Amino acid sequence: MIIVSCSKGAHLGRKIAKKSGAGYTAIKTGRFPDGEIYLRFLKDVKGKIVVLVQSFYGDIDGLIVETLFAAATARDLGAKKVLLAAPYFPYFRQDKSFHDGECVSLHVIGHLFDKYFDKIIVVDPHLHRENTLQHVFKTESSRLTANPLIAMYIQKHFRTPVLIGPDWESYKWARKVAEMINAESSILEKKRYSSHNVKVRLRRRIEMENKEAIIVDDIISTGHTILETIKNIKKLNPKKIICICVHGIFTENALEKIRKAGASVISTNTIPSAVSEIDVSGLIANSL
Ligand code: R5P
Questions:
Q1: What is the position in ligand 1's atom list of the atom closest to the CA of 224?
Q2: Closest residue (by CA) to atom 3 of ligand 1?
Q3: 182 alpha carbon – ligand 1 mean position (Å)
Q4: What's the rounded mean pLDDT across residues 79-83?
Q5: Which of 85-99, 121-135, 193-207, 264-278 ranks highest by mean pLDDT?
Q6: Which residues does 165 contact at the CB level (< 8 Å), separation at least 6?
Q7: Less CB within 10 Å around the terminal CB: N or C of the chain?
Q8: What is the distance in A from the centroid of ligand 1 to the CA of 279?
Q9: What is the position in ligand 1's atom list of the atom closest to the CA of 223?
Q10: CB-based pocket (< 6 A), ligand 1
């Protein structure tokens, strides 16, 4: 087996190789003068199980093309199998036509990746309207969760945590993690009007004085969901507010905005950032 980092996968690829005892290489990528993608394997992958590692952030669409090119090239070079470890998989939030005429991007992407991979490994996919990864990919897939790692982090760093989920969908993280560490939890109610307009409200009063309010969600993107949640939680006078997410996209200065609102932020390294304190490489290595 050989772990092959794509252009945004090196922060995890190296560690996954070390922890799994597999070989390691990174593909060479670049751009032709007209913007087209250049890609080259630097090690022989013939007869090997190739695990591509890619984290989809930044130029997501360019990275999709790069990843498919890498898979096709590995196959051309004689790889025995081609797997993808994509801890954050993009387009899962566009999982239905919310308005007439909209593309259900998740299904298009799913079918596209099916053709190139023998197996796809994802950490905490944003599965809401689709329940399982098998509804997204026809090829073999594996759904991992960072919940035990988040639970361990909270146990190590906080003494009186109360876990908060910003919306019903977040029970999969907030409530599940709370159950793992025997902590209280509460799920708030969210209404999303647009990408930048969300309203969150408390469904019931929670005892929070002298406790640490730990908001847990799968994704922080623009930060609006978290900012609205912080606004509500502040009224309850917690000792501290901490936001923990699996996938820290942090677009539009979300990190700064959340810190300004008086909360600290922690994420895993499915997408690397200054607050990626929880490492998912072992989780992925163990699944190979
Ligand atoms: C929504 O269902 C997700 O779980 C997150 O709450 C959402 O994607 C966060 O987005 P934003 O940070 O842009 O509010």
A1: 14
A2: 219
A3: 25
A4: 98
A5: 264-278
A6: 171, 173, 174, 175, 185, 186, 187, 188, 215, 216, 217
A7: N
A8: 21
A9: 12
A10: 166, 169-170, 198, 217-225
**What's the confidence (pLDDT) of residue 225?**
92
Q: In whole angstroms, give the CA distance from residue 173 to residue 178.
A: 8
Please compute Rg for the chain using Cα positions: 20
CATH class of 2-145+281-287: alpha beta
- Is the predicted pLDDT of residue 288 greater than 80, yes or no? yes
- Provide CB contacts within 8 A for 256, sequence distance 6+: none
Atom of ligand 1 nearest to the CA of 218: 4
The topology (CATH level 3) of 147-269 is Rossmann fold (3.40.50)
pLDDT of residue 187: 87
User: Poorest-confidence range of 88-92, 161-165, 186-190?
Assistant: 186-190
Separation of 44 CA from ligand 1 center, angstroms? 41
Instruction: Quote the ligand 1 centre to 33 CA distance (angstroms).
Output: 36
Active-site annotation, residues: 190
Q: Which carries the bigger pLDDT value, residue 194 or residue 243?
A: 243
Q: List the residue whose alpha carbon is closest to atom 2 of ligand 1.
A: 169
Average pLDDT over residues 151-162: 97
Ligand 1 atom at minimal distance to the Cα of residue 190: 6
**In the predicted structure, residue 40 carries a pLDDT above the cut 80:** yes
Every domain of the chain with CATH number 3.40.50.2020 lies at 2-145+281-287, 147-269
CB 123 within 8 A of CB 99: no
Residue nearest to atom 10 of ligand 1 (CA): 221
